[in-house]
Amino acid sequence: MDFVTALFYAFSAILLLAATQVITARSPVHAALFLVLSFFSAAGIWLLLKAEFLAIVLVLVYVGAVMVLFLFVVMMLDINLDKLREGFWGRLPLAAIVGVIVALEMSAVLLKGFLRPDNHIAVKPSNIGDTKALGIEIFTNYVFAFEVAAAILLLAIVAALR
């Protein structure tokens, strides 16, 4: 096993442990800090895949902006966790059903991709971290999805202001 493979396994193990701690931590502040650790581990994996732009965007946007804002909000609010946990067992069956449906949908998408891989791959693995190739791919082949995402974000901003 070479050094890059060992780093991949180390980052993957840290990512899995941190993600598990995000959903099992009792304190929202600890959960947010574990989420920061998982973002840094994911950025390390992106760096190993030579996608430096995506790694830097992950760190700057999610860790630098979103998580800092989330930590400030969590620390400034007085959250009563006992009141939040009151109806947990009553909502568990519905949450389990929704979780199973989401897992089945993800499995169907992944299996479809593995059984019938597309022959159209515009971005070659050699330039996957290239910002120019990413921009060309987004604004040519995925322009409709990009515009829909922009409209959804604009709608979320307007809804947050109301």
Q: What can be said about this structure in brief?
A:
The chain has 162 residues and is mainly α. It is built from seven helices and no strands. It has a domain at 1-86: Up-down Bundle (Four Helix Bundle (Hemerythrin (Met), subunit A)).
Write the layout of secondary structure elements.
Blueprint: H1 3-24, H2 28-48, H3 52-76, H4 81-84, H5 88-115, H6 131-140, H7 143-161
Verbal overview:
The protein is built from seven helices and no strands. It is an all-alpha fold. The chain has a domain at 1-86: NADH-ubiquinone/plastoquinone oxidoreductase chain 6, subunit NuoJ (Four Helix Bundle (Hemerythrin (Met), subunit A), Up-down Bundle), CATH 1.20.120.1200.
Architecture (CATH level 2) name of the domain at 1-86: Up-down Bundle
Low-confidence stretches: none
Question: Could you state the order of secondary-structure elements as H and E?
Answer: HHHHHHH
Structural class: mainly alpha
Which descriptors would you attach to this protein?
single chain, mainly alpha, Four Helix Bundle (Hemerythrin (Met), subunit A)
